[in-house]
Specification:
single chain, 206 residues, mainly alpha, 10 helices, 83% helix, 0% strand
């Protein structure tokens, strides 16, 4: 995959990084760290400009994020509430009120969540779906997505440019960062499930 990504970027330049980052936002396993740092390195031996590189990468990220935002809009809160009201909800032990609570939380803290999640591997892409589900205002979604993505892209493209031929060291470091963050997220997810169900058990016993 790495060779294919590099070939596309070398052959298509700005358009290549735009398309790759757009796809990476929809399909998280494609490493944005590789795309962005190599893009930065390309500015050291081609006529590609670092600022334009960052702009195209950010536009690509926003395009991919908007695609997932609309996926979330299709599977909106009302549809989810209907789903959990049936057999699926019984199996997962979810109720319509749980969806209401999650939606309220996203309405009040969604913009901050969208911003900070742009720095977390995999989650940085998937966060667009709940944003669409909760019908987060489009303008607000675009602003916070653009800000978070712009910072992420600027840091990695700049590092790739500064490191030059050693750009792959940044990729290795970011891989370690991704693994650590994912482990932490898994632990937090398991802890949240335990807390959620223990609370349910306490309610039933009382």
């Amino acid at each position: 995959m790495e060779n294919i990504i590099i070939d596309l970027m070398e052959n298509f330049g700005y358009i290549g990084i735009f398309l790759l980052i757009a796809v990476e936002n929809i399909f998280p396993p494609i490493p944005s760290e590789l795309i962005l740092t190599f893009g930065g390195f390309m500015t050291t031996y081609t006529n590609l400009n670092i600022v334009i590189m960052i702009i195209f990468a950010t536009l690509g990220a926003l395009t991919g994020a908007l695609a997932l935002y609309y996926v979330g809009k299709i599977f909106n809160k009302r549809r989810l509430m209907k789903i959990v009201s049936g057999k699926v909800g019984k199996v997962l032990r979810l109720k319509a009120e749980d969806i209401e609570k999650a939606d309220y939380w996203f309405d009040t803290k969604g913009h901050i969540t969208v911003f900070f999640c742009r720095f977390i591997p995999i989650v940085r892409s998937l966060i667009s779906i709940p944003a669409g589900m909760s019908e987060m205002p489009m303008k607000k979604f675009i602003v916070y997505t653009t800000l978070g993505t712009l910072i992420w892209n600027t840091v990695l493209v700049t590092l790739g440019s500064l490191m030059g031929k050693n750009w792959e060291k940044i990729v290795l470091f970011m891989n370690d960062y991704s693994h650590i963050v994912l482990i932490i997220l898994v632990i937090l997810f398991i802890a949240a499930i335990i807390y959620f169900y223990s609370k349910r058990v306490k309610k039933k016993t009382s």
